[in-house]
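Bug report (template v2)

What were you trying to do?
Predict the complex of my protein with zinc ion.

What happened?
Run completed; filing so the output is reviewed.

Input:
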Amino acid sequence: MTDLAAFIARLPKAELHMHIEGSLEPELMFALAKRNQVAIPYDSVEAVRAAYSFSNLQDFLDIYYQGADVLRTEEDFRDLASAYFDRAAADNVAHAEIFFDPQTHTDRGIGFDIVMRGLTAGMDDAHARYGITSRLILCFLRHLDEEAAFATLRMAEPWLHRIEAVGLDSSEMGHPPEKFARVFEAAAALGLKRVAHAGEEGPPDYVRQALDVLKIDRLDHGNRSLEDPSLVARLAREQMTLTVCPLSNLKLCVVGDMADHPIDRMLAEGLRVTINSDDPAYFGGYVNDNFQAAAEARGLGREALLTLARNSFLGAFLPQEEIAAHLARVDAYAAEG
Ligand code: HPA
Ligand SMILES: [Zn+2]
């Protein structure tokens, strides 16, 4: 292991942008397909991996929603979450805020409660086993309509004690944040925090809508904000956390080459950026792989890596005293490292 890889491996960090359905590794997909007797259009794990070549977000989403079809039972969701937490623990993730897409499941006849019971069991196991804390973020699929989002929010009401925030994901272009203004307002009234994917493929105006209309607490991706200097200045001034996903950006052609990734420019602009894995089973790596790829390509040194780790805790939906304790651990690591 290089010095850089060793430094990243032991760096305490939070992961704030990870879709649990996107952590479904081909091996587990096959195992669940067999357990549930679900047909999948691949005959080997290698064939699944070979299919993971995307030229944009929609290419990926088509395959990702198809993969999720093997998830049927509470045990499946628990196994899915446990597999992610095993990897997260290995990457020294102390806290994870995890997206899930209930509509992908309820629209196939899988009960909201099945999903919640399985995921929360996996989260509780991870806390007991590794001490990892976690939160769930319910994402609305933006290619579906407002009414469907409201129906999902109603299903979530008995589970609000286990849901921290609502988010917005899926096909961005043509589905601007303002389409979900009322459902985000209703979520806020229920005491939920708000995040949204914006500026991954969509224009800076979608980021502005997420800020002004959805009143987000955190911005997922946000890359295209860089096209608008006044927006960058505002994001920096407001210390909005951006959850950036370098390997995702590469695989979905948000950047042409990792050597062109704007992570260091974002840091230099004073943005509170974090590094995350997005859909690790599909994009070729977990959070440390994302740190490594970005650091190598853009020459990030220890100070930048420590800033990214601090930002991940500063942007977490945790009580102030827990954030302070995590920051103290990063400081101790910096002093020893
Ligand atoms: O990166 C993403 N963007 C939008 N929707 C998603 N759903 C899973 N990953 C993503
Ligand atoms: Zn995402």
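What did the reviewer find?
Residues 314 and 323 are 6 Å apart (CA to CA). Residues 3-336 form a domain with the TIM Barrel fold (CATH 3.20.20.140).
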